[in-house]
Each structure stands twice: as structure tokens, then as C-alpha cells.
Fold:
Amino acid sequence: MLTAMGTARRIDALGRVVVPVEMRRMLGIDEGDLLDIHVEDARIVMARIEHRCVFCNSNDELRAYRDRLVCRNCVDALTAPA
Ligand SMILES: [Zn+2]
Structure:
């Protein structure tokens, strides 16, 4: 469970704000990741949109299964005869 942490950042003229590196590291947010941004109780909430395999973290040839993404290698491994 993550504990609450906060910091102050100034928003620029274009509406941009930098997400602190320590928060990105803690949450595994990498350059190029998509973030969902929405308003919740008058607060701006950002959350990483998962576009990675639930098993190996790859983002290669993903397929959806029950609202989760699985890469081709893991699908092949799961469906290979024992
Ligand atoms: Zn995988």
C-alpha cells in the first residue's frame, strides 16, 4: 500500500506540469506511457493506463482477455501442450 505523498509544482503557460521523478519511479510510469486524467471531487487524478502484459510486462502484440492484456509470447506459453 502506497502512502500519501505530496509536493508543489507550478503549472506552465501551456497547462503542463512535471510529475516528480520519485512518483513516476514509485508507480512505474515510464516515458511514453499513457495516463488517464480525470476530475474526482474537484481534484485532478492521473493514473497510468496499463498497456502491458500482465505476466511479463511486455507491450508486444497484446491481446485482451477478461479486461487484461496478455502478450503473444505468454499466450503461446499458456496454450502450449505440457
Ligand atoms: Zn507476456
